[in-house]
Specification:
mainly alpha, disordered N terminus
Length: 199
């Protein structure tokens, strides 16, 4: 059964364009983009990837959620401490996760985007964890898991791109752009975890 994706304005807790100002500067963002070798060609490749992934996003999310569900240490962060997963929390995050795929592929990496990356970061830490969806889950998602999830969030994308793109070379190029974008975002999400002056 297909899940009907709500419009951006109806996605629970999706506050793109209304997030607080990021403490990360645009100059620091440009440095990070340079560090992961992200350029205009990558932005164009991501736009193409977004076109290929549209219509498949629910299946991507099925793969990601299936992976998380099989990892007790990950699903714990969507559960009450020592209890069962919180269904409404999983559902709300799923809608935002689907929109995150679209945003990663189609949004300009500008101040609004940077501000929302900061909001995403805070939602994994005690500053904002559980507040958006008013749930009583764990207080923090450990940074080590955000970093480690770069692998499944990246490798699982390939078959969805390959399903609609015959050129293996083009798929590989889009995969490289996706990896750069994911690492860039995880680097931004790591900021609230770092001691002052160490990020």
């Amino acid at each position: 059964m297909s899940i009907q994706t709500p419009k951006n304005s109806e996605i629970p807790g999706y506050t793109y364009g209304a997030a607080g100002h990021s403490p990360v500067t645009l100059a620091e963002l440009e440095e990070l983009k340079a560090s992961v070798m992200f350029g205009e060609k990558d932005a164009a490749l991501l736009r193409r990837a977004g076109e290929l992934l549209e219509g498949q996003i629910e299946k991507v999310l099925d793969a990601w959620y299936g992976f998380v569900a099989g990892q007790p240490h990950l699903v714990a962060h969507f559960s009450r401490p020592g209890g069962e997963p919180i269904a409404e929390y999983l559902a709300a995050v799923r809608f935002r996760f689907g929109q995150w795929i679209r945003d990663t592929c189609t949004r300009p990496y500008d101040q609004e985007w940077l501000d929302y990356q900061n909001e995403i970061a805070l939602r994994h830490t005690p500053e904002h964890k559980n507040e958006t969806d008013h749930v009583g889950s764990t207080r923090v998602v450990p940074l080590r898991h955000l970093i480690a999830l770069v692998v499944p969030i990246t490798t699982t994308i390939r078959p969805f791109l390959a399903k609609r793109e015959e050129s293996a070379e083009k798929v590989e190029a889009m995969m490289e752009a996706w990896l750069k974008a994911v690492v860039l975002q995880v680097a931004l999400w790591s900021r609230p975890y770092a001691d002052e002056g160490r990020w």
